[in-house]
Write a structure and sequence with these properties.
Helix content is 43%, strand content 14%. The chain folds into 4 domains: 150 residues, Orthogonal Bundle (DNA polymerase, domain 1); 99 residues, 2-Layer Sandwich (Beta Polymerase, domain 2); 79 residues, Beta Polymerase, domain 3; 236 residues, Alpha-Beta Barrel (TIM Barrel), CATH 3.20.20.140. The chain has 24 helices and 17 strands. Strand 5 and strand 6 form a beta hairpin. The strands form 4 sheets. The chain has a 7-stranded parallel sheet with strand order 11-12-13-14-15-16-17. A 5-stranded mixed sheet has the order 2-4-7-6-5. The radius of gyration is 26 Å and the shape is globular.
Length: 575
């Protein structure tokens, strides 16, 4: 087992103990042990082999023994026994917003509720509100959470789906007989979430590939094992989070690969349009060929298939039937933004607020990525929960930036802030402080439950503020956890266009906000987009890649994105 998988296992033990009513001391021991292990530095394999893990604060002899067992064997009887003792539905209930282990345990013991379905019935019958510690308001929130959970199904974030897909595709490509292999479906198109993974392989001999696939270590269950298609349920622990998805593998002959990769990439609507074009040319298009009664069209690549249909090549991110066919026919598709076009980012946090690394460390990581500038935007004073900066602390940070900038050559740290948008739409400092920043990211962090008119008016007022440079995570959504707040996004975009205020694509995979359809509309209105990782660690700076994918899905080219500008041009823009 890897370190992250063991961290997840220890954390799961703590959660299961809490659900079974174990004392808080034991629960905290596993939770604290998981946290201590997660933050442990050094060569993990050597630390386990040395037998010195117990010397780490939070990891005693008992935990060291369990960690060693998990590392060496990949399993732990104690964890298996705990899993068997807890109804699986209780863990599913923990996915509901605001429902922790203690409340789940209470519902189970008082009302014998052990599934989300039973919980909904109890809420509908007004039984949950009668349980001590709940009440009508909590019951209503539970029902809202169940409804929202029902809309997201078993989807996972794109970064987690990609992580699992990458592990599987690497193993597949290493198998003998594999000619070409690619991840298809929504993952390839760059959708924000995925409910499954589609992998396509070309080979002259499918059988040994299929046999190896269903034996991969990530396999939890074999759903189907056929001669050219197999389906599994696979699991991977990614940074302590268990990712479980259905995975389909198809193997075709290499001559069929170009047609199959287009078909299985989708979308369904895009494929229907392609088949219609084929029919108009007296041809038939399916996953195996492009052919007619008197002829067949041989294509070796996707590009050749699109050419055969008199189209420009359409990148996967655009294949949603939102005008890409018409643009490709006229040879008017945009040259899409590339990750290499990004020159720096502006929405990032440091240890001055709730980040995990110092300003200097974050800036040096930005340099290591080949960027020309780094913008710091720690939280403003009203967000005390995130250690927001007072005006005096802001001025101290400015002095530090000035000192650090003296040591850089062809690189600059810009002075920014992520200013809370207050309830009345104003920013979080007096004008004399606001005037000292190079730029300001204005974001909502509170009062999510306003009416659509109130929330829209609040945000539009902030956008119109002459000190606001860019709007951060515009809709406030957290993918698969919290829907966007009520907002007239069209009015927000039009206000941004009117006041020449940029709007951010927040590249955190939990946000990806703006959503791509709104990005496309922003471009049409002439709103300049900026892509930011909202990074809290040096590693998170690389999350910018996911923002680039959203930009590509929104038809953005290099000219549409502010942080493709070189350093001198950014300095001129801020001045």
């Amino acid at each position: 087992m890897t370190k992250s998988e063991i961290v997840a296992a220890l954390d799961e033990i703590g959660t299961l103990l809490e659900l079974t009513g174990e004392n808080d001391f034991r629960v905290r021991a596993y939770k604290n042990g998981a946290r201590a292990l997660d933050q442990l530095e050094g060569d993990f394999k050597q630390l386990v082999a040395s037998g010195t893990l117990s010397k780490t604060r939070g990891i005693g002899d008992a935990l060291q023994e369990k960690i060693t067992t998990l590392f060496n064997t990949g399993s732990l009887n104690y964890l298996d026994e705990l899993r068997a003792s807890v109804p699986p539905g209780l863990l599913e209930m923990l996915k509901l917003p605001g429902i922790g282990p203690q409340k789940v345990k209470l519902l189970h013991s008082v009302l014998q509720i052990d599934t989300i379905e039973k919980l909904k019935i109890a809420c509908d019958r007004d039984q949950v509100s009668q349980v001590k510690g709940f009440g009508k308001k909590t019951q209503t929130k539970i029902l809202e959470g169940i409804a929202y959970l029902g809309t997201i199904g078993q989807r996972v974030r794109v970064d987690l789906a990609r992580a699992l897909a990458d592990v599987l595709i690497d193993q597949i490509r290493a198998l003998p007989g594999v000619i070409r292999a690619v991840v298809c479906g929504s993952v390839r198109r760059g959708r924000e979430t995925a409910k499954d993974i589609d992998i396509l392989v070309s080979s002259a001999n499918a059988e040994p590939i299929m046999y190896a696939f269903v034996k991969f270590p990530q396999v939890l269950k074999v759903v189907n094992h056929g001669p050219t298609k197999s389906s599994i349920v696979a699991q991977l622990n990614v940074d302590g989070e268990a990712v479980v998805l259905n995975v389909d593998l198809r193997v075709v002959q290499d001559s069929e690969f170009p047609y199959a990769v287009v078909y299985f990439t989708g979308s369904k609507e895009h494929n229907i349009r392609l088949r219609q074009r084929a029919i108009e040319r007296d041809l038939s298009l399916n996953e195996y060929a492009l052919a007619g009664e008197s002829k067949s069209v041989t294509c070796e690549t996707e590009q050749e298939l699109y050419t055969a249909l008199d189209l420009e090549y359409i990148p996967p991110e655009l294949r949603e039937d939102t005008g890409e066919i018409e643009a490709a026919e006229k040879k008017e598709l945009p040259k899409l933004l590339e990750y290499s076009d990004i020159r720096g980012v502006f929405h990032n946090h440091t240890t001055a607020s709730d980040g995990k690394a110092t300003l200097e460390v974050m800036a040096k990581q930005a340099q290591a990525l080949g960027w020309e500038y780094f913008g710091v935007a720690d939280h403003s004073q009203s967000l005390t929960v995130a250690n927001g900066l007072s005006a005096d602390r802001v001025r101290e940070q400015w002095k530090l930036i000035d000192e650090l900038n003296k040591s850089f050559k062809n690189f600059r740290i810009f002075k920014g802030i992520e200013s809370d948008i207050l309830l009345d739409g104003s920013l979080d400092y007096d004008d004399d402080v606001l005037a000292g920043f190079d730029y300001i990211v204005a974001s909502v962090h509170s009062h999510f439950n306003l009416s659509e008119d109130e929330q829209t008016e609040r945000i539009c007022k902030a956008i119109a503020n002459p000190f606001t440079t860019m709007l951060g995570h515009a809709t406030g959504r957290l993918l698969l956890r919290r829907p966007a707040y009520k907002l007239d996004i069209e009015r927000v975009l039009q206000t941004a266009a009117k006041h020449n205020t940029m709007i951010e694509i927040n590249a955190q995979p939990s946000r990806l906000d703006l959503e791509w359809t709104h990005v496309k509309r922003a471009k049409a209105l002439g709103v300049k987009i900026v892509i930011n990782p909202d990074a809290h660690t040096p590693a998170e700076l690389a999350l910018t890649e996911y923002g680039v994918t959203v930009a590509r899905r929104g038809w953005l080219s290099k000219a549409d994105v502010f942080n493709t500008l070189h350093l001198q041009d950014v300095m001129k823009a801020f001045n």
